[in-house]
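Dock zinc ion; give full complex structure.
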Amino acid sequence: MSNIVTIHEMEETFLSVDLSSYDTITYDDGLVSQLEHRHKFPNHRSIFFISPAFIQRGVNDLGQECMTLEHVKMLIDEGFEIGGHSYSHAKLGQFKNLVEISTYIIHDTKQCAKWFETNLGFLPKSFAFPYNDDCKGVYKAVAKKYGFKELFGLERKPIETLLRN
Ligand SMILES: [Zn+2]
């Protein structure tokens, strides 16, 4: 497995982090703050993980501003990689049992795949689990079933943990 860093809300201080031992940078939630510095790490594979519900609503679950569909298309035009990050980004902990979780994951992943096909014309290769929760493998199996090939979760290192004190 490669060395992967994850970024949510982008901050200026992250630009000074030494990422030379990491080969992939993943940006979660499709946040507007990630756009400004997108060219600062040109030697890394960059993947922007998009949750369609956030794109439609304009904010994520923390109220942080999200990209528009036009922004996502611009990233693709610029050669950046887009990944799926579920359709509605729900917390699996809110469900009562595994049956409810599985039902949600299947419905949501199907909806997610359909959104990409309809709005962007392709299904991304990559998928990142919201909150890195792969539900002990259940989510992995469903994401693969719906065509996502490369799955990302807890193995990613939050960039905040790499900041020097
Ligand atoms: Zn997320």
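Observed: Residues 98-120 form the longest helix (23 residues).
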